[in-house]
Amino acid sequence: MKVLIVDDEQHVRESVELSIDWSKYDITEIFMAEDGAEALGIVRREDPELIICDMSMPRMDGIAFLEALREEGWNAQVIVLSGYQEFRYARATLLANGVDYLLKPFKISDLDKTVSRAVESIIESKQNESEEWRKNHQVHEANTLLNEQKMVTYLQSEAANHEGVRQLLSEAGFPLEGFYVLLFLPRNGAAVIDRYFMGDETLFQFSVRNIIRDILKPLAHYYFFRIDSFLCILTQGDVSAAEMEYYRRKLEESWLAAIKIETFSGFSKQKYSYTDILAGVKEAKKEILKSNVLGGHQMLVDQRKILTFMDKELLVLEALKKQDKEYLEELIHSFVKELRERGYLSLKELQHYSIEINLLIMRISRQLEQEHHIEPLSLWLSDLDEWEKALTHIFWLMIESEGENLSSLRSIHAIRHYIESHLNENINLTFLADKFYFSPQYISKKFKETYDTTIMNYLTRLRMDKAKSLLSHSDLSILEISQIVGYEDDNYFGKVFRKHAGESPSQYRKKRQER
Question: The Response regulatory domain covers which part of the protein (predicted)?
Fold first, then answer.
């Protein structure tokens, strides 16, 4: 937060600066001006939230300065300091949204109280603005998602709804023909959402779209939507193949640098119209299917060694019957290791293994007479680590469906105890699933049933309770406290704390210290 002190007397400016402990109000920048003209320039450049202003000054006095603030639409809170008691000064203060009117000489305690009231008003105003922005953002996001769903529905319906597609593109101002199709397949999306977005997929998708908007800003037209596991971008037809390659590479690099997401990509070499978008998607998919899941471009594969997971069927079935999760994990890991040793594994080949394993899972489910539906392995998993985790979790779900006993309840209690003892660690569902040999879905479901709250809500509440205790009973900095309770970014910690407590960490500490 910023404050601007305006007075033609240097000793008054310095007195105001030294009289207040600005840090307790989260005010980190202090600006000085000798008169209204200089102050107005600072306001235009720095946009301070709080202004402490004298009335009687040369060049531009307080009245003219406050009127200029009002006319230009600045929303700073204003505290007027003056030895003059004319009503016109007080009226000017009110018009400029002033919070108080102090007569010189003033008591330091009165100034401090006035600053405190002003800061509270600023925070309340920002919260209201933030809430309004949040609501508008939610509406915008909802409309964006609705249009995406409409586009996918129109494209994938039995008889493609070309009129619906045409209407969506027209409403967005996008040309109806002569465009290219650019397709991206996120490889490590699940891990990135868990680790960097605290499981918030909506925030992740918002970040993806922001990067697209920034990178494709030079283009006159583009249209983005998600279809199945893909990010699809339609680009204007007057872009050359070289430019398309540039934007493709730039998007991949930017996503990786900003949000750690890795992608495979492909783009159509010919132009399409709104009636054959899926043909363009299909062309781009062909390029993606050639991508090497293992990285690099080498194709040195020992063709004599044919790998299949089917020959492990009896071992898998026996492990499932014994509910031996560790042995199942070992079987899967050894198979993945063999795949890695091939040196080259196209996404198309990995899809063949996924289909093979899905058939195996269906057959084993029938043998075990399992009635519930197991979600099959996605054909578009393109990161071998995520593929291994997904397969492991499917088999864990099959074990868990065989029966829930006292040991599973003990495991849920153990998970709770682990969370309570490791608040400073980067804990998420995927991490807990790997550590305790349960699927994320199972842990989430059983924890909610046992404790009537979600794991992330429980973890956040414990972290905030500990943060409150440290703020009240220690001299640790807010950065140190944020790290102790598991947040590397103190700004993000501050946002979570404000959402939980209704005030910033520094405000919470200040109130507790005043009691």
Answer: 2-119
Q: Measured between alpha carbons, how far is residue 458 from residues 452, 484, 508 in Å?
A: 10, 17, 21
CA pair distance 20, 257, nearest whole angstrom: 42
Let me know if residue 108 belongs to a domain. Answer: yes
What secondary structure letter does DSSP report for 372?
S
DSSP structure class, residue 312 = G
Compute the distance between CA of residue 170 and CA of residue 161 in angstroms, rounded to an integer.
Answer: 14
CA distance 321 to 324: 8
Residue ending a domain, choose from 355, 374, 401: 401
**346 bridge partner residues:** 292
Query: If pLDDT is split at 50, 70 and 90, which confidence band does 101 have?
Result: confident
How many whole angstroms separate alpha carbon 66 and alpha carbon 246? 51
Q: Which domain holds residue 111?
A: 2-127
Tokens at residue 321, please? 């019957």
Residue where the block lists tokens 């930017």: 254
Based on the domain organization, do 390 and 418 belong to the same domain? Answer: no
Strand order in the sheet with 77-82: 29-33, 2-6, 50-54, 77-82, 98-103
- Residue 506 carries which DSSP code? H
Q: What is the Cβ-side half-sphere exposure of residue 239, based on CA atoms within 13 angstroms?
A: 25
Of 103-112, 113-122, 130-139, 317-326, the poorest mean pLDDT is in: 130-139
pLDDT at 349 over 50: yes
Q: Could you give the count of Cα atoms lying within 13 Å of 270 in the half-sphere of its Cβ?
A: 9
Return d(Cα 27, Cα 42) in angstroms, integer. Answer: 16
Does a structural domain hold residue 140? no
Q: Do 8 and 101 belong together in one domain?
A: yes
The partner residues of 223 in beta bridges, in order of sequence, read 234
DSSP string, 445-505: HHHHHHHSS-HHHHHHHHHHHHHHHHHHH----HHHHHHHTT-S-HHHHHHHHHHHHSS-H
User: Which amino acid, residue 97?
Assistant: N
Q: 388 with 338: CB under 8 angstroms? A: no
Phi, psi angles (nearest 5°) of residue 20: -115, 140
Q: What does the pLDDT average to over 238-265?
A: 90
Contact indicator for 84, 56 with CB cutoff of 8 Å: yes
